[in-house]
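Let's practice the habit of predicting before peeking. Look at the sequence and jot down your guess about where helices and strands might fall. Then scroll down.
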Amino acid sequence: MKTPFPLIFALWGAGLGAAAQYGKVSVVFDALPAVYPGAGAALGFVVSLVGLVGIVFGVVAGLVVARVRYRRALISALWIGAGVSAFQALLPDLPLLLASRVIEGASHLAIVVAAPTLIAQLSAPKDRGLTLSLWGTFFGVAFAVLSLLGRPLVAGWGIPALFAAHSAYMAVFAVLLSGWLKRLPPEGPQPFLNLRQIMRDHGTIYRSPYISAPAAGWLFYTFCFVSILTVLPPYLTPELRNLILAAMPIVSIIVSMTMGVWLLRHVSAVRVVELGFAGSALCLAWLWAVPGAPLACLALAAALGLIQGASFAAVPQLNDTAAAQAQANGAMAQMGNLGNTLGTPVIASVLLSFGYAGMPVVAGLACIGGLCAHLILGRLRNRM
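Done guessing? Here is the structure:
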């Protein structure tokens, strides 16, 4: 079996579009009050609704995508995403904008479940660590591109230009992938979908130490990564602050695509994730002892980078069938959104109550929690 790398990169490109469904609002959030004066705290939901949809329906998305079939779900989600962004470019009234973000959350979920499942199925076993590590970079790369290109676009042409550009991007990948994915063999008959089966499968996922394992670790990873990048800046040396904040996601991606890929050729993905959590906990102890130490920040980003790609690589290693992989990716989407949602407010509350010292302690405990979750689930698998 030979890995079709152009198709893999196209699927990754679709993932960048899905990440931009989050990022396009985040990078222009400070400009929204001028468009929606008097909206107040309700504007926060423009950002958070996509994540809330993921928390509630993440696992359901995995179940639905497995039954609708991966190609159909992916192409439909890309077209829906293109349509929603085109509608948002009209700057509709706030209630309509919020409703569109709910629809966009469903589109986002379908992409982040279907695309990595297809990547795992299309990749040769020897390349799977590389291709899924590449997939694991989609959020970081998308946010970096939006920061570099999105804000200047908005500064020159306004918020509608960014939404319209995103719409065009999603449409291009919908057309591109429609042609390429048609060449693949049929995915087989579509299983019958009903609410009772969805609820039954929901329980099956979280009872299984195979299907749920990547999601269990992903919860703790997302809890730490986003919250640390959010609350750390005031504690960094002012002259190095911007450099460190820009370097941390880049270091994380580079380590995931180099050392992470190399390790995945020699040990299991779960072991790489465990190594990442252990290393992250040690780096957070370093940050506790030496507050804001630049090298400790970069070392932490490197350790978290091991978790990033290996977590996605663990999905096909632990689950043989495409249906089980879709369920595992749905659970990762759910737990990732939960971790992103909880991490920053929890860490911020700790900072208010205990000062800087509380941040690395709580984040370190979360990393130890991720390590313990994988160790416990690994022991359960060995008993089966």
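How did you do? The chain has a mean pLDDT of 86.
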